[in-house]
């Protein structure tokens, strides 16, 4: 809005004028000095802090701004100070001429603020009700979307150029899992109510099959360590099984301490004994790798306690203060 009009009697240039609005806290002292120089000391600048803070409607963030009011007389100063306020990025609000108009303006602004607060509160309640209806089904919907995404990702690997109603896929299957795959195909046809059964045919080829290594909860993490260095070729000896002992034992040799090993063992036992509580849940970047390698931590901590007992070391101190080895060289 524009600046306010005159506040009292007298000539046009002698009428008291007022400009009010908001300005950034770090600019208010500079504005006071510039207004003093421009008006040659004929303008009064007052500031008032806003205890509730101010939220910028364009950026939606809270900024530190104070209220200002500038009182002066003369139309020329009104134009000069108005341009200064634009330069400083200050907002301007119209100030009524008299006390009665000011009271009416304050009442109108109060009603508008109350209406906006009520509208905002009602919108928030509606949003909470809308979100509340879908909160219970978020996990189920997410699981459904992931399954559909997986199905479509696999269907995109099929070849449908032969017929629009028939798709063809070539894949490697472990020899001992062929019967299980055929059973899964039959169950899929029955559930879908399809008229044409799915056919599984074994193709003999000279291509080298990819490496398939069976793992369980204990060996999966150790196999991952082995695969980080290299995946063995088809029918080649898998060194990952040796990692279960050698990797854990070498860690115990380097980290041989009964005290620290016991603390590590307690943490690993907690993850192993309560693994079902963490299964299928989203874990943070610290718990997730520890949970994935819980059996690695378990074996490493056991060997750490064992080697710490051999080293006679607990939390960096000797468990038996004056232990020694006696060697008979006679």
Automatic annotation (TrEMBL):
<comment type="similarity">
    <text>Belongs to the V-ATPase 116 kDa subunit family.</text>
</comment>
<dbReference type="GO" id="GO:0007035">
    <property type="term" value="P:vacuolar acidification"/>
</dbReference>
<dbReference type="GO" id="GO:0016471">
    <property type="term" value="C:vacuolar proton-transporting V-type ATPase complex"/>
</dbReference>
<dbReference type="InterPro" id="IPR002490">
    <property type="entry name" value="V-ATPase_116kDa_su"/>
</dbReference>
<feature type="transmembrane region" description="Helical">
    <location>
        <begin position="241"/>
        <end position="274"/>
    </location>
</feature>
<dbReference type="Pfam" id="PF01496">
    <property type="entry name" value="V_ATPase_I"/>
</dbReference>
<feature type="transmembrane region" description="Helical">
    <location>
        <begin position="295"/>
        <end position="311"/>
    </location>
</feature>
<protein>
    <recommendedName>
        <fullName>V-type proton ATPase subunit a</fullName>
    </recommendedName>
</protein>
<keyword id="KW-0375">Hydrogen ion transport</keyword>
<keyword id="KW-0406">Ion transport</keyword>
<dbReference type="GO" id="GO:0033179">
    <property type="term" value="C:proton-transporting V-type ATPase, V0 domain"/>
</dbReference>
<dbReference type="GO" id="GO:0051117">
    <property type="term" value="F:ATPase binding"/>
</dbReference>
<keyword id="KW-0813">Transport</keyword>
<keyword id="KW-0812">Transmembrane</keyword>
<comment type="function">
    <text>Essential component of the vacuolar proton pump (V-ATPase), a multimeric enzyme that catalyzes the translocation of protons across the membranes. Required for assembly and activity of the V-ATPase.</text>
</comment>
<keyword id="KW-1133">Transmembrane helix</keyword>
<dbReference type="GO" id="GO:0046961">
    <property type="term" value="F:proton-transporting ATPase activity, rotational mechanism"/>
</dbReference>
<keyword id="KW-0472">Membrane</keyword>
